[in-house]
Design brief:
With 411 residues, the protein is of the alpha/beta class. The protein has 2 domains: 55-65 and 307-410, Aspartate Aminotransferase, domain 1 (Alpha-Beta Complex), CATH 3.90.1150; 69-305, 3-Layer(aba) Sandwich (Aspartate Aminotransferase, domain 2). The protein is built from 17 helices and 13 strands. Strands 2-8-7-6-5-3-4 form a 7-stranded mixed β-sheet, with helices on both faces. Strands 9-10-13-12 form a 4-stranded antiparallel β-sheet, covered by helices on one side. A two-stranded parallel sheet has the order 1-11. Helix 7 (147-155) links the parallel strand 3 (137-142) and strand 4. The longest helix is centred in the last third of the chain and has 19 residues, at 308-326.
Length: 411
Protein backbone atom coordinates (compact mmCIF):
# COMPACT_ATOMS: atom_id res chain seq x y z
CA UNK A 1 0.00 0.00 0.00
CA UNK A 2 1.34 3.46 -0.86
CA UNK A 3 1.70 5.58 2.31
CA UNK A 4 -0.46 8.67 2.68
CA UNK A 5 1.99 11.45 1.82
CA UNK A 6 0.03 13.94 3.90
CA UNK A 7 1.10 11.99 6.95
CA UNK A 8 4.36 10.29 5.99
CA UNK A 9 5.87 12.41 3.25
CA UNK A 10 9.50 13.49 3.21
CA UNK A 11 8.89 16.52 5.46
CA UNK A 12 7.11 14.66 8.25
CA UNK A 13 7.87 11.63 10.34
CA UNK A 14 5.53 9.72 12.61
CA UNK A 15 7.34 9.21 15.92
CA UNK A 16 8.12 5.66 16.97
CA UNK A 17 6.88 4.45 20.30
CA UNK A 18 10.49 4.46 21.56
CA UNK A 19 10.84 8.21 20.90
CA UNK A 20 8.73 9.02 23.98
CA UNK A 21 7.96 7.52 27.34
CA UNK A 22 6.84 3.88 27.17
CA UNK A 23 3.13 3.38 26.55
CA UNK A 24 1.29 1.92 29.53
CA UNK A 25 -0.43 -1.21 28.20
CA UNK A 26 -3.06 -0.89 30.95
CA UNK A 27 -3.78 2.83 30.49
CA UNK A 28 -7.39 2.30 29.39
CA UNK A 29 -8.08 -0.25 32.12
CA UNK A 30 -6.59 2.06 34.77
CA UNK A 31 -8.67 4.98 33.54
CA UNK A 32 -11.91 2.97 33.42
CA UNK A 33 -11.35 1.67 36.95
CA UNK A 34 -10.70 5.20 38.22
CA UNK A 35 -13.90 6.49 36.58
CA UNK A 36 -15.85 3.65 38.18
CA UNK A 37 -14.52 4.59 41.62
CA UNK A 38 -15.45 8.22 41.09
CA UNK A 39 -19.02 7.30 40.07
CA UNK A 40 -19.37 5.02 43.07
CA UNK A 41 -18.14 7.73 45.45
CA UNK A 42 -20.60 10.23 44.01
CA UNK A 43 -23.55 7.82 43.99
CA UNK A 44 -23.75 7.96 40.21
CA UNK A 45 -23.48 4.29 39.23
CA UNK A 46 -26.28 3.11 36.96
CA UNK A 47 -27.37 -0.25 35.63
CA UNK A 48 -29.30 -1.32 32.55
CA UNK A 49 -32.52 -2.26 34.34
CA UNK A 50 -35.46 -4.20 32.95
CA UNK A 51 -39.03 -4.07 34.24
CA UNK A 52 -39.77 -7.77 34.12
CA UNK A 53 -43.01 -8.58 35.94
CA UNK A 54 -42.95 -5.36 38.00
CA UNK A 55 -45.88 -2.97 38.25
CA UNK A 56 -44.90 -0.29 35.77
CA UNK A 57 -44.63 3.25 37.10
CA UNK A 58 -41.44 3.95 35.16
CA UNK A 59 -41.77 3.31 31.44
CA UNK A 60 -42.60 5.89 28.78
CA UNK A 61 -45.35 3.76 27.19
CA UNK A 62 -47.84 6.40 28.33
CA UNK A 63 -50.91 5.10 26.48
CA UNK A 64 -50.08 1.40 26.84
CA UNK A 65 -49.93 1.03 23.07
CA UNK A 66 -46.60 -0.79 22.94
CA UNK A 67 -48.33 -4.06 23.74
CA UNK A 68 -51.69 -3.34 22.12
CA UNK A 69 -52.79 -6.29 19.93
CA UNK A 70 -53.44 -4.10 16.89
CA UNK A 71 -50.05 -2.41 17.21
CA UNK A 72 -48.30 -5.75 17.53
CA UNK A 73 -50.18 -7.08 14.53
CA UNK A 74 -49.21 -4.06 12.44
CA UNK A 75 -45.55 -4.53 13.35
CA UNK A 76 -45.66 -8.23 12.53
CA UNK A 77 -47.34 -7.59 9.18
CA UNK A 78 -44.64 -5.07 8.28
CA UNK A 79 -41.93 -7.62 9.04
CA UNK A 80 -43.61 -10.10 6.69
CA UNK A 81 -43.99 -7.46 3.97
CA UNK A 82 -40.68 -5.61 4.20
CA UNK A 83 -38.32 -7.74 6.29
CA UNK A 84 -36.67 -7.06 9.63
CA UNK A 85 -34.95 -3.83 8.63
CA UNK A 86 -34.98 -1.07 6.02
CA UNK A 87 -31.53 -2.21 4.79
CA UNK A 88 -30.35 1.27 3.72
CA UNK A 89 -30.53 4.95 4.53
CA UNK A 90 -33.57 6.91 3.44
CA UNK A 91 -31.64 8.59 0.62
CA UNK A 92 -30.33 5.30 -0.74
CA UNK A 93 -33.01 2.62 -1.03
CA UNK A 94 -34.28 2.66 2.55
CA UNK A 95 -37.44 4.75 2.12
CA UNK A 96 -40.39 2.37 2.23
CA UNK A 97 -44.07 2.98 1.64
CA UNK A 98 -44.71 2.64 5.37
CA UNK A 99 -42.38 5.60 6.02
CA UNK A 100 -44.39 7.75 3.61
CA UNK A 101 -47.66 6.66 5.20
CA UNK A 102 -46.32 7.39 8.68
CA UNK A 103 -45.22 10.88 7.68
CA UNK A 104 -48.61 11.68 6.17
CA UNK A 105 -50.36 10.37 9.28
CA UNK A 106 -48.13 12.45 11.56
CA UNK A 107 -49.07 15.54 9.55
CA UNK A 108 -52.78 14.79 9.90
CA UNK A 109 -52.44 14.09 13.60
CA UNK A 110 -50.49 17.25 14.44
CA UNK A 111 -51.84 19.64 11.82
CA UNK A 112 -48.37 20.21 10.36
CA UNK A 113 -47.65 20.52 6.66
CA UNK A 114 -44.59 18.25 6.37
CA UNK A 115 -42.95 15.47 8.35
CA UNK A 116 -39.65 13.63 8.16
CA UNK A 117 -39.12 10.39 10.08
CA UNK A 118 -35.78 9.55 11.72
CA UNK A 119 -34.54 6.37 13.38
CA UNK A 120 -35.03 7.81 16.90
CA UNK A 121 -36.03 10.95 18.71
CA UNK A 122 -32.39 11.47 19.66
CA UNK A 123 -31.24 11.37 16.04
CA UNK A 124 -34.10 13.68 15.05
CA UNK A 125 -32.81 16.33 17.45
CA UNK A 126 -29.20 15.82 16.37
CA UNK A 127 -30.21 15.95 12.71
CA UNK A 128 -32.46 19.00 12.87
CA UNK A 129 -30.08 21.14 14.91
CA UNK A 130 -27.12 19.97 12.86
CA UNK A 131 -28.87 21.01 9.67
CA UNK A 132 -29.84 24.41 11.10
CA UNK A 133 -26.44 25.09 12.64
CA UNK A 134 -23.16 26.45 11.35
CA UNK A 135 -21.04 29.55 11.97
CA UNK A 136 -23.90 31.92 11.11
CA UNK A 137 -26.34 30.40 13.61
CA UNK A 138 -27.07 31.06 17.27
CA UNK A 139 -28.97 28.52 19.37
CA UNK A 140 -30.52 29.63 22.66
CA UNK A 141 -31.22 26.50 24.72
CA UNK A 142 -33.38 26.32 27.80
CA UNK A 143 -31.32 25.38 30.86
CA UNK A 144 -33.32 22.15 31.26
CA UNK A 145 -33.04 21.06 27.62
CA UNK A 146 -32.64 17.33 26.99
CA UNK A 147 -29.19 15.85 26.35
CA UNK A 148 -30.05 15.24 22.69
CA UNK A 149 -30.72 18.95 22.19
CA UNK A 150 -27.51 19.90 23.97
CA UNK A 151 -25.51 17.42 21.90
CA UNK A 152 -27.14 18.53 18.67
CA UNK A 153 -26.43 22.19 19.40
CA UNK A 154 -22.80 21.56 20.36
CA UNK A 155 -22.15 19.41 17.29
CA UNK A 156 -23.83 21.85 14.91
CA UNK A 157 -21.06 24.42 14.82
CA UNK A 158 -23.47 27.14 15.96
CA UNK A 159 -22.87 29.55 18.81
CA UNK A 160 -24.74 28.18 21.82
CA UNK A 161 -26.17 30.18 24.71
CA UNK A 162 -28.24 28.92 27.64
CA UNK A 163 -31.30 30.74 28.94
CA UNK A 164 -32.76 30.46 32.43
CA UNK A 165 -35.37 27.73 32.63
CA UNK A 166 -38.75 28.79 31.22
CA UNK A 167 -37.72 32.46 31.31
CA UNK A 168 -39.04 34.48 28.38
CA UNK A 169 -37.26 37.51 29.79
CA UNK A 170 -33.89 35.79 29.67
CA UNK A 171 -34.55 34.52 26.15
CA UNK A 172 -35.31 38.08 25.04
CA UNK A 173 -32.17 39.31 26.77
CA UNK A 174 -30.07 36.87 24.73
CA UNK A 175 -31.93 37.76 21.53
CA UNK A 176 -31.22 41.46 22.11
CA UNK A 177 -27.64 40.71 23.08
CA UNK A 178 -27.11 39.06 19.72
CA UNK A 179 -28.72 41.93 17.81
CA UNK A 180 -26.54 44.48 19.61
CA UNK A 181 -23.27 42.58 19.23
CA UNK A 182 -20.64 43.82 16.73
CA UNK A 183 -21.13 40.68 14.62
CA UNK A 184 -24.68 39.42 15.21
CA UNK A 185 -25.60 35.94 14.09
CA UNK A 186 -28.09 36.26 11.21
CA UNK A 187 -29.90 33.00 12.05
CA UNK A 188 -31.23 32.42 15.56
CA UNK A 189 -33.21 29.51 17.00
CA UNK A 190 -34.68 29.23 20.48
CA UNK A 191 -34.74 25.59 21.60
CA UNK A 192 -37.21 24.35 24.23
CA UNK A 193 -39.17 21.28 25.26
CA UNK A 194 -42.95 21.31 25.32
CA UNK A 195 -42.94 19.33 28.59
CA UNK A 196 -39.66 18.87 30.43
CA UNK A 197 -38.67 15.37 31.40
CA UNK A 198 -37.44 15.95 34.97
CA UNK A 199 -39.66 18.60 36.52
CA UNK A 200 -42.54 17.79 34.17
CA UNK A 201 -43.37 21.47 33.71
CA UNK A 202 -44.56 22.93 30.43
CA UNK A 203 -42.97 25.64 28.30
CA UNK A 204 -45.05 28.75 27.45
CA UNK A 205 -45.12 27.84 23.77
CA UNK A 206 -47.53 30.50 22.48
CA UNK A 207 -45.62 33.29 24.22
CA UNK A 208 -42.24 31.90 23.14
CA UNK A 209 -43.44 31.66 19.53
CA UNK A 210 -44.63 35.26 19.61
CA UNK A 211 -41.30 36.40 21.05
CA UNK A 212 -39.39 34.52 18.36
CA UNK A 213 -41.60 35.94 15.61
CA UNK A 214 -40.89 39.48 16.79
CA UNK A 215 -37.15 38.85 16.66
CA UNK A 216 -37.07 36.84 13.41
CA UNK A 217 -36.01 33.66 15.20
CA UNK A 218 -37.06 30.05 14.84
CA UNK A 219 -38.64 28.23 17.77
CA UNK A 220 -37.57 24.58 17.96
CA UNK A 221 -39.89 22.54 20.20
CA UNK A 222 -39.09 19.01 21.32
CA UNK A 223 -42.47 17.30 21.84
CA UNK A 224 -41.02 14.04 23.17
CA UNK A 225 -43.32 14.12 26.20
CA UNK A 226 -46.41 15.68 24.62
CA UNK A 227 -46.97 14.04 21.23
CA UNK A 228 -50.10 11.87 21.67
CA UNK A 229 -49.98 12.65 25.39
CA UNK A 230 -51.56 16.07 25.66
CA UNK A 231 -54.67 17.95 24.59
CA UNK A 232 -55.21 17.89 20.80
CA UNK A 233 -52.40 15.29 20.59
CA UNK A 234 -49.73 17.96 20.26
CA UNK A 235 -48.67 20.82 22.53
CA UNK A 236 -47.81 22.97 19.51
CA UNK A 237 -51.25 22.37 18.04
CA UNK A 238 -52.93 23.09 21.39
CA UNK A 239 -51.00 26.39 21.51
CA UNK A 240 -52.32 27.34 18.05
CA UNK A 241 -48.92 26.91 16.38
CA UNK A 242 -49.62 24.04 13.96
CA UNK A 243 -49.50 26.34 10.94
CA UNK A 244 -46.62 28.52 12.12
CA UNK A 245 -43.70 28.40 9.71
CA UNK A 246 -41.18 29.66 12.27
CA UNK A 247 -41.97 26.78 14.66
CA UNK A 248 -40.06 23.53 14.10
CA UNK A 249 -41.22 20.52 16.10
CA UNK A 250 -39.31 17.35 16.85
CA UNK A 251 -40.80 14.31 18.54
CA UNK A 252 -40.19 10.72 19.48
CA UNK A 253 -42.37 7.77 18.50
CA UNK A 254 -41.14 5.68 21.43
CA UNK A 255 -43.10 7.21 24.30
CA UNK A 256 -46.88 7.72 23.98
CA UNK A 257 -46.93 5.86 20.67
CA UNK A 258 -45.14 2.87 22.18
CA UNK A 259 -42.97 2.21 19.12
CA UNK A 260 -39.56 3.52 18.05
CA UNK A 261 -38.27 6.37 15.94
CA UNK A 262 -38.39 10.15 15.78
CA UNK A 263 -39.73 12.87 13.54
CA UNK A 264 -39.36 16.47 12.48
CA UNK A 265 -42.74 18.18 12.00
CA UNK A 266 -42.80 21.35 9.93
CA UNK A 267 -45.41 23.99 9.20
CA UNK A 268 -46.06 27.08 7.14
CA UNK A 269 -45.37 27.93 3.51
CA UNK A 270 -41.66 27.08 3.77
CA UNK A 271 -42.26 23.62 5.27
CA UNK A 272 -41.42 21.88 2.00
CA UNK A 273 -38.23 23.88 1.59
CA UNK A 274 -37.14 23.06 5.13
CA UNK A 275 -37.90 19.36 4.66
CA UNK A 276 -35.80 19.37 1.49
CA UNK A 277 -32.98 21.02 3.44
CA UNK A 278 -33.14 18.34 6.15
CA UNK A 279 -33.15 15.52 3.58
CA UNK A 280 -30.01 16.97 1.99
CA UNK A 281 -28.04 18.13 5.04
CA UNK A 282 -29.15 16.25 8.15
CA UNK A 283 -26.35 13.77 8.82
CA UNK A 284 -28.47 11.49 11.02
CA UNK A 285 -30.93 11.21 8.15
CA UNK A 286 -28.39 10.90 5.35
CA UNK A 287 -26.05 8.37 6.94
CA UNK A 288 -28.26 6.32 9.27
CA UNK A 289 -30.22 3.25 8.25
CA UNK A 290 -33.89 4.12 7.96
CA UNK A 291 -36.35 3.34 10.72
CA UNK A 292 -37.17 -0.37 10.84
CA UNK A 293 -40.47 -1.05 9.04
CA UNK A 294 -41.96 -2.85 12.05
CA UNK A 295 -41.44 0.23 14.23
CA UNK A 296 -42.83 2.53 11.53
CA UNK A 297 -45.94 0.39 11.11
CA UNK A 298 -46.42 0.17 14.87
CA UNK A 299 -46.24 3.95 15.24
CA UNK A 300 -48.63 4.36 12.32
CA UNK A 301 -51.23 2.15 13.98
CA UNK A 302 -50.68 3.79 17.35
CA UNK A 303 -51.56 7.20 15.89
CA UNK A 304 -55.01 5.84 15.06
CA UNK A 305 -55.42 4.59 18.63
CA UNK A 306 -54.05 7.68 20.39
CA UNK A 307 -57.47 9.29 20.62
CA UNK A 308 -58.86 11.86 23.09
CA UNK A 309 -60.29 9.08 25.29
CA UNK A 310 -56.88 7.52 25.90
CA UNK A 311 -55.23 10.89 26.39
CA UNK A 312 -57.97 11.76 28.91
CA UNK A 313 -57.34 8.49 30.75
CA UNK A 314 -53.65 9.38 30.92
CA UNK A 315 -54.47 12.73 32.53
CA UNK A 316 -56.76 10.93 35.01
CA UNK A 317 -53.93 8.59 36.05
CA UNK A 318 -51.62 11.55 36.56
CA UNK A 319 -54.18 13.13 38.90
CA UNK A 320 -54.55 9.88 40.84
CA UNK A 321 -50.78 9.75 41.37
CA UNK A 322 -50.52 13.27 42.72
CA UNK A 323 -53.71 13.16 44.80
CA UNK A 324 -52.90 9.80 46.40
CA UNK A 325 -49.36 10.77 47.34
CA UNK A 326 -50.58 14.15 48.62
CA UNK A 327 -52.75 12.23 51.07
CA UNK A 328 -49.57 11.66 53.08
CA UNK A 329 -48.67 14.91 54.88
CA UNK A 330 -44.97 14.03 54.97
CA UNK A 331 -44.88 13.95 51.15
CA UNK A 332 -47.41 16.64 50.28
CA UNK A 333 -44.93 19.49 49.91
CA UNK A 334 -42.49 17.38 47.90
CA UNK A 335 -44.76 16.38 45.03
CA UNK A 336 -44.13 18.09 41.71
CA UNK A 337 -47.23 17.94 39.54
CA UNK A 338 -46.19 17.58 35.94
CA UNK A 339 -48.01 18.93 32.89
CA UNK A 340 -47.84 15.51 31.25
CA UNK A 341 -47.41 11.90 32.28
CA UNK A 342 -44.36 12.35 34.50
CA UNK A 343 -44.87 13.22 38.17
CA UNK A 344 -42.02 13.58 40.65
CA UNK A 345 -41.27 13.33 44.35
CA UNK A 346 -38.29 15.27 45.67
CA UNK A 347 -35.96 13.15 47.78
CA UNK A 348 -33.50 14.21 50.52
CA UNK A 349 -30.56 12.99 48.46
CA UNK A 350 -29.24 10.51 45.94
CA UNK A 351 -28.75 7.75 48.53
CA UNK A 352 -32.36 7.98 49.71
CA UNK A 353 -33.63 8.02 46.12
CA UNK A 354 -31.64 4.93 45.19
CA UNK A 355 -32.62 3.11 48.39
CA UNK A 356 -36.31 3.82 47.82
CA UNK A 357 -36.06 2.66 44.20
CA UNK A 358 -34.39 -0.60 45.27
CA UNK A 359 -36.93 -1.22 48.04
CA UNK A 360 -39.82 -0.66 45.64
CA UNK A 361 -38.33 -3.12 43.15
CA UNK A 362 -38.24 -5.71 45.90
CA UNK A 363 -41.96 -5.03 46.44
CA UNK A 364 -42.69 -5.47 42.74
CA UNK A 365 -42.93 -1.80 41.71
CA UNK A 366 -40.75 -0.07 39.10
CA UNK A 367 -40.16 3.68 39.47
CA UNK A 368 -37.44 5.81 37.92
CA UNK A 369 -34.66 7.33 40.01
CA UNK A 370 -33.31 10.67 38.82
CA UNK A 371 -30.23 12.04 40.55
CA UNK A 372 -27.25 14.27 39.73
CA UNK A 373 -25.96 14.83 37.13
CA UNK A 374 -29.21 13.92 35.31
CA UNK A 375 -31.26 16.51 37.22
CA UNK A 376 -30.53 20.10 36.20
CA UNK A 377 -31.20 21.57 39.65
CA UNK A 378 -29.17 18.97 41.57
CA UNK A 379 -32.20 17.60 43.47
CA UNK A 380 -32.70 13.85 43.43
CA UNK A 381 -36.20 12.61 42.63
CA UNK A 382 -38.34 9.57 42.21
CA UNK A 383 -40.08 9.92 38.86
CA UNK A 384 -43.48 8.25 38.70
CA UNK A 385 -45.02 7.88 35.26
CA UNK A 386 -48.75 7.77 34.62
CA UNK A 387 -50.25 5.39 32.06
CA UNK A 388 -53.64 5.58 30.42
CA UNK A 389 -54.42 1.88 30.87
CA UNK A 390 -53.97 1.83 34.67
CA UNK A 391 -57.07 1.03 36.71
CA UNK A 392 -57.57 4.00 39.09
CA UNK A 393 -58.38 1.85 42.14
CA UNK A 394 -55.45 -0.51 41.60
CA UNK A 395 -53.14 2.43 40.88
CA UNK A 396 -54.11 4.11 44.16
CA UNK A 397 -53.31 0.91 46.08
CA UNK A 398 -49.89 0.65 44.47
CA UNK A 399 -49.20 4.30 45.27
CA UNK A 400 -49.96 3.68 48.93
CA UNK A 401 -47.14 1.14 48.89
CA UNK A 402 -44.92 3.70 47.17
CA UNK A 403 -45.62 6.29 49.86
CA UNK A 404 -45.07 3.85 52.76
CA UNK A 405 -41.83 2.62 51.24
CA UNK A 406 -40.43 6.12 50.84
CA UNK A 407 -41.27 7.00 54.43
CA UNK A 408 -39.77 3.73 55.72
CA UNK A 409 -36.52 4.34 53.85
CA UNK A 410 -36.28 7.87 55.24
CA UNK A 411 -37.13 6.97 58.84
Amino acid sequence: MVPDQTLTGPSTRLPAATDNAPVDPRAWETWLAARSRVRAARGMQRTDNSRGPLTDLASNDYLGLGGHPEVRAAAAAAVHEYGAGAAASRVATGTLQVHRELERSLCRYTGRAEALVFSSGYTANLGVLGALGGPGSLFILDAHAHASLIDGARLSGAQVETSEHNSLGDIERLLLQNMQSPAPKPRVAVVVESVYSVLGDAAPLAEAADLCARHGALLVVDEAHSLAATEHGSAARAAGLAGSGHVVVTATLSKALGAQGGAALLGGESAGLLREHLVNTSRTFLFDTALAPAAAAAALRSLDLADPQRIGDLARSARVICDTLAGHPELRGRIERGAGAVQSIRMPGADAAMAATAALRERGIAVACFRPPSVPDGISRLRITAHAHQDPVELALVLETVARTILEVES
